[in-house]
Amino acid sequence: MAIACPVDLDTQQLRSEVSKIYSRVVADPDGEFHFHRGPAYAAEFLGYNSEELATLPAETTAAFAGMGNPHRIGSIRAGETVLDIGCGAGMDLLLAARQVGPTGRAIGVDMTDSMVERARSSARAIGLAQVEVRKGDATSLPVESASVDVVISNSVLNLVPEKERAFDEIVRVLKPGGRLHLADILLDVELSEDTRRDIDLWTG
Could you tell me whether strands 174-183 and 148-154 are parallel, antiparallel, or unpaired per DSSP bridges? Predict the structure, then answer.
């Protein structure tokens, strides 16, 4: 059996359902979801620094829904350009922006309008002028080729059906010698065809 998603999977419907879920996270982060959220979860289970998180806008950290910590994979240096794929409300993006400092750049890409606006407003609220948030998709990044030092992503690529295209895009935007700090979900068993066709299971 193939391990890729079925070729007839309605990827546009999948993207729409994912966007709906994460729009609800922005509007009601304390609502009912199948995944954990918020700064307490991030600090206790994923190793984020709670004091550092407390300096970010509460609206951003409340909507955090990652399942790993890309910042523990390696360092991000002052002056570098960082790209956060699927930046969501911006928690990882803002942390990266502080590491690159005013001489660097922190670019976030997300496909959900409300997440894009939340990340932008949070960056403005704490004066991080080096942050730019663009609406886009992991399989067609609105980023110049060979322009990024570090790509980070937190539990987003597992939601992308065209994973080869997403990784091709990562390779395209990275500078020679660039780094990938990827925190995500992996399976060690192959899923059945019926499971891989179930959009509800992809999103939930």
Answer: parallel
What tens digit of pLDDT does each residue of 23-41 get? Answer: 787 777 777 877 778 999 9
Distance CA 40, CA 90 (A): 16
Give 54-64 pLDDT, tens digit per residue. 999 999 999 99
Report the predicted TM-score, pTM, of the whole model to 2 decimal places.
0.87
Q: Where are the alpha helices (DSSP H) in 127-192?
A: 163-173
**C-alpha–C-alpha distance, residues 127 and 86, integer Å:** 22
What residue type is 176 in one-letter code?
Answer: P
3-state secondary structure of 135: strand
pLDDT 10s digits, 151-164? 999 999 988 888 89
Assess whether pLDDT exceeds 50 at residue 189: yes
Alpha helices in the chain (DSSP H): 11-27, 39-46, 50-53, 58-62, 91-100, 113-125, 163-173, 193-197, 199-203
112 and 138 in contact (C-beta within 8 Å)?
A: no
pLDDT at 32: 80
- SS in 3 state form for 20-38? HHHHHHHHCCCCCCCCCCC
Phi-psi region of 146 (alpha: psi -120 to 50; beta: other; left: phi over 0): left
How far is CA 87 from its chain centroid? 4
